[in-house]
Specification:
With 138 residues, this protein is mainly α. It has five helices and four strands. It has helices spanning 2-7, 11-33, 40-62, 86-97, 127-137, and strands spanning 67-69, 105-107, 112-114, 120-122. The protein has a two-stranded parallel ribbon. The protein is flat and about 45 Å long.
Length: 138
C-alpha cells in the first residue's frame, strides 16, 4: 500500500493500484487456503510478476505514456517439452495485436507462461529472453 501511495500522484490511479494490490493478496490467500492447486509454487510466484507489471502499466498511463498490459498467461504457451510453442504464441498474439495502437507501450511479464496442460508455469532460466524476443516481433 505504501508503494501505491508513493508511486501514484493522482487519486484515480492510486485507488486502482490499491484495489489491484488488495485483489492480488486476496488471490494469494485463497490459493494458500485451497489444497487443490497442483501448481502451488508457480501460482504464488506468478502473482509478484503480475502485480508489478500491472502497477507499472498504471503508472505509465498516469504519467501520460499510453500503455497496454499484454498478459503473458494469455499468449505464452509451452509444448510438452517445456519449450515455447511458437505457432500457438503467434496465433494468440496476432489476435491480440488488432486491439493495440502504435502509440501504446506494450508491457508484459518476463518469465510466465502456461504449460501444455494450461497450468501456470515459468520458462525457466533465460525465459525472459524468449518473452523479449517474441514481443520484439510483435
Amino acid at each position: 500500500m505504501k508503494t501505491a501511495s508513493e508511486l501514484f500522484s493522482g487519486q484515480v490511479k492510486r485507488s486502482e493500484g490499491v484495489t489491484f494490490i488488495n485483489n492480488t493478496f486476496s488471490k494469494i490467500a485463497s490459493i494458500l487456503m485451497t489444497n487443490v492447486y497442483p501448481n502451488l509454487y508457480n501460482e504464488i510466484v506468478a502473482q509478484g510478476e503480475i502485480l508489478s507489471t500491472n502497477l507499472f502499466c498504471l503508472y505509465l498511463n498516469e504519467i501520460g505514456r499510453p500503455s497496454t498490459l499484454v498478459d503473458a498467461l494469455d499468449y505464452m504457451i509451452t509444448d510438452n517439452r517445456g519449450e515455447p510453442d511458437f505457432m500457438a504464441i503467434s496465433t494468440r498474439l496476432h489476435a491480440m495485436k488488432k486491439n493495440l495502437t502504435d502509440k501504446h507501450i506494450v508491457v508484459t511479464q518476463g518469465f510466465l507462461c502456461r504449460d501444455a496442460e494450461g497450468q501456470i508455469s515459468n520458462l525457466g532460466r533465460g525465459g525472459s529472453d524468449y518473452s523479449a524476443a517474441i514481443l520484439a516481433m510483435f
